[in-house]
Specification:
single chain; three-stranded antiparallel beta sheet; 7 strands; about 35% strand
């Protein structure tokens, strides 16, 4: 007699996965962050085209004057800060903080084929777009 290792019949599968049951059981026992963090790591997307590269850094809530872009020794470094909202003693208190606040630094090594003198930056709608043209055409 064969042993059934996997139930491929959807009607006979349990209605909830074990992970969702564990999540419900552990939800209140896991520690939550009740204060904004001191640093975070913004997400980045890098797109390559025939003209060069485009770097998109997700920086919602970061003011243009709080962003610094630097290039040294083949590395492009973006640093900045997103200030956390102030919590007053008599006002509302943080119950859960999932947003990243504080300082950030992201460093990217650039290939030798890019023209660092022509790098352009634009911060719009919370996305920093860095256009990094290439000196060689494909």
């Amino acid at each position: 007699m064969a042993t059934l290792l996997y139930n491929n019949l959807p009607a006979l599968r349990p209605t909830r996965a074990i992970s969702s049951v564990l999540n419900e059981m552990l939800r209140d026992t896991l520690p939550t962050q009740a204060a904004p963090s001191q640093s975070f790591i913004p997400q980045a997307d890098i797109v390559e085209s025939e003209q060069g590269f485009e770097l998109h850094l997700m920086l919602p809530g970061v003011a243009k004057e709080n962003v610094k872009i630097d290039f040294q020794e083949g590395k492009l470094t973006v640093t900045g800060e997103r200030k956390a909202p102030e919590a007053a003693e008599t006002g509302p208190k943080f119950r859960r903080v999932e947003s990243g606040y504080g300082t950030f630094t992201r460093t990217f090594r650039l290939p030798d084929t890019v023209d660092v003198t022509a790098i352009e930056a634009q911060l719009q709608d919370g996305v920093l777009r860095l256009t990094i043209p290439s000196t060689t055409k494909r």
